[in-house]
Amino acid sequence: xxxxxxxxxxxFFFLFLLALYVLVVSSPFxxxxxxxxxxxxxxxEHARRHNLEPQLVAAVIxxxxxxxxxxxxxxxxxxxxxxxxxxxAWAAAQAGINDFTPDQLFDPWTNIYLGTWYLHDLKRxxxxxxxxxxxxxxxxRGHVKRWLEEGVWDGSRENLEDxxxxxxxxxxxxxxxxxxxxxxxxxxxx
Length: 190
Description:
By secondary structure, the chain is mainly alpha-helical. Helices cover 65% and strands 0% of the residues. The chain is built from 9 helices and no strands. Helix 6 crosses helix 7 (130-139) and helix 7 crosses helix 9. The model has no long low-confidence stretch (mean pLDDT 92).
């Protein structure tokens, strides 16, 4: 008898958690807590300047740093868009930012500016193929270029499993998922 009561309680508890999950996922209010739009003005400004969709930039930021401007990865990537200091120095020189220092990558304006500049540059390099762009953003331009040239990966969504780096495959899928949510949740705000 006690086992039946425990089982019934567990089933009701599981159903309660399931209903709560469905409520949270389907609610725009709760979804916006999970997919926030922090630094909206900077994201829109720099995305438009570099011919990108703000929702894509927001998705990259969410996946890279979850909007924490002081984020620093174990490998040394910094700021909202997790830019490596050497990539930041190169992008700053290309974009005409003088006197760049790696600590500037913690500044939201500078980080989003350089991150969007870099995404735009990758879009040009990879003929607007967003999957190749995201893979290169995470795994490196040289790696992705080599994978495409050698036929390791064809650059398609369907063959993401061919990307040799698990972290890069995961990054592309996470950004894609977040991008779709940002398009859905913030479609009327841009």
